[in-house]
Amino acid sequence: MMYSMYDWQFAAFSHLRALALTGQKFLTNPDLPFNESRFFRGVAASCELFERFTRRYEKPAWGLDEIRIASKSVGVSEEIVKALPHCNLLHFKREMNRDDPKVLIVAPMSGHHATLLRGTVAAMLQDHDVYITDWIDAGRVPVSKGRFDLDDYVDYVITFLQDMGSSTHVVAVCQPSVPVMAAISLMAGDNDPGQPVSLTLMGGPIDTRINPTKVNEFAKRHSLGWFERSVITRVPFGYEGFNRRVYPGFLQLTGFMSLNIDRHFGAHLQLFNHLVQGDGDSAAAHRKFYDEYMSVMDMTAEFYLQTIDVVFQRHALPRGKWASRNRPIEPFAIQKTALLTVEGELDDISALGQTYAAHRLCSGIPESRKHFLQEKVGHYGIFNGRRWRNAIYPKIRDFIREA
Question: Which residues contact 290 (CB under 8 A, 6 or more apart)?
């Protein structure tokens, strides 16, 4: 019902959205004599904000067709090297012949598309052969393709690592820190030749009992039954994933924005002022960020609910109580994979200490463990932005080289 209401609302605003877009285009036409008027700029800005608030944001393109390496322009192409029902293993193939370390970036399945890590990939491409997990919107996966839960996530990571080979380095950003550690633990226990050389965990909820955030407290305060009744719905007719039970992307986006509603409201007020003042560069920067931020995807109900249960309510990994498909998860079995954890001082999603907790669990690799705390950055600043490029990325690059 929730999904159908969302579709109905989108359709109901379609005519007004088209009218607003037409008005915005007309009032910003450079050939019109009144386009410099603050009044008409204000009307045009209002039209743009209305259109942006009521549109649907599709998955953005990666847009990484070219990067700079050693002051030279290098072409980049995308290729799917492994296609599974709920995820594509995507390779960014550089048009150069250089034997750089092979890196698998495991993107979070937490509402946003993997393209949210565009800045992460762009930096890594300078010195690495980069692959990434490109998760597929559950609302676009037919029910006939099967279910997908946290155990499947672990299995997918193992499959990708086995295909990529033993010389791989793994970087897990936020949510996948838990299933990635589980996957490597299982591989270590089996002495799997595909075990990675190194593992970097960035802002991940390894142990959410430490410095619990608002997100952690919310998950603990409500039962699994409450989550199932409140946020789980079926994909309506007209989508490829018709009748699949999902946690819809639009509900996730509402949750994201409610955590910092004042900040988002202020950002859109700033956009209005930039448009009225004719500050095109600042307006373009806002559009670029929110075009990505507002683009969300559905998650399967079983994955979402199992993650709430295992990670945020039972704390099964740090308590040594997690078994995936009856296989015990034992991080102390990891001995051949070096470990780096990265945290942000101002992270309000995975607070200080939650990722560092991985070191206590991975007691089998005492000589190959490192931790880096970046001051004055929040959750997204760990893997995007100036401090990511100038401070955090060099630490990861050097750690991978040393490993």
Answer: 52, 267
